[in-house]
Design brief:
This protein is α+β, with helices and mostly antiparallel strands. The protein has six helices and eight strands. β5 and β6 form a beta hairpin. It is elongated and about 85 Å long.
Length: about 280
């Protein structure tokens, strides 16, 4: 509970000067009603009498004084803004950046201000009418929300990375940074395993090309059972790696190193099987 009013006025936003600044503050001595009045519009309303629902309803917040939509610019504020994403208003409505929804609704009938704040802080989400969802309804809702999140406009992030940077661990992701010292917690892999996995991919592809060319000439360097096993390695592990990795080159979203982890599992298993195959050849 912040007890602050959402305010916007004709001042340039700190990182996006073409947009209007948005802030939250409280001042009992200055009345700025026009600056803190917003109109709520349901974006996905199917009928005129449809109510505003938590989670399910998508809304647009229109600043009444300027007629502009509340949006997220995609830029990250510096330390004085606690590295939050910048929120502004703009006259152009882009659904991906100017559509909002309410994740939780808290309700109380307590009149006393102090008691009301305590009640609201301690309260759980209370629906106005009894509502129950089956497992599959909850599953479908969560999948829909996750799918819709991924179509948001790509945003810049200080720890985001590109797929080309993942195989060689060029960029890590910070999960926690201390404000009082240099202590940090990063997502970072084992360099030996990471780089060996990349080498295993090239070694496997080189051996596969070598075996195929030799078999075209009726030269069989390994027995049929070993050859079939070697082929299955590519069909399962190499294909699994490529499917889980190459898809991100087509993804128009903010990406981080942890998106590479499913592909990394296949790369590590491929490393183990390639080492086994090379060992058998050298034995």
């Amino acid at each position: 509970m912040t007890n602050r009013a959402l305010n916007s006025h004709n001042v340039a936003a700190p990182l996006t000067p073409t947009d209007q600044e948005v802030s939250c503050y409280i001042d009992y001595h200055i009345q700025l009603t026009s600056h803190s009045t917003w109109r709520v519009e349901l974006v996905n309303r199917k009928s005129a009498d449809e109510q505003w629902m938590a989670v399910q309803s998508s809304v647009r917040l229109i600043h009444v004084d300027s007629g502009q939509s509340l949006k997220i610019s995609g830029k990250q504020l510096p330390e004085w803004g606690f590295r939050h994403f910048e929120v502004t208003t703009n006259s152009e409505f882009i659904p991906e950046t100017a559509t909002w929804n309410v994740e939780e609704h808290r309700y109380t009938k307590v009149e006393d201000k102090n008691e009301r704040e305590k009640d609201m802080n301690d309260a759980e989400m209370i629906p106005t009418t009894p509502y129950s969802m089956s497992f599959w309804q909850k599953f479908a809702e969560l999948q829909t929300k996750m799918f819709m999140t991924r179509v948001d406009q790509p945003m810049e992030h200080m720890y985001s990375s590109e797929p080309l940077e993942w195989p060689l661990l060029d960029r890590t992701t910070a999960y926690w940074i201390s404000n009082d010292s240099n202590a940090q917690i990063h997502l970072i892999g084992n360099f030996v395993v990471w780089y060996s996995g990349v080498a295993a991919i090239f070694i496997y592809c080189a051996l596969l090309a070598f075996y195929l060319l030799r078999r075209k000439r009726q030269c069989y360097d390994i027995d049929e059972e070993t050859w079939l096993k070697f082929r299955r390695i590519g069909e399962v592990l190499l294909s699994g790696y490529l499917v889980n990795y190459l898809v991100f080159f087509l993804t128009d979203a903010t990406l981080f190193l942890y998106h590479y982890l499913p592909a990394l599992v296949f790369k590590i298993m491929l490393l183990a099987t390639v080492l086994e195959h090379v060992y058998l050849l050298l034995r």
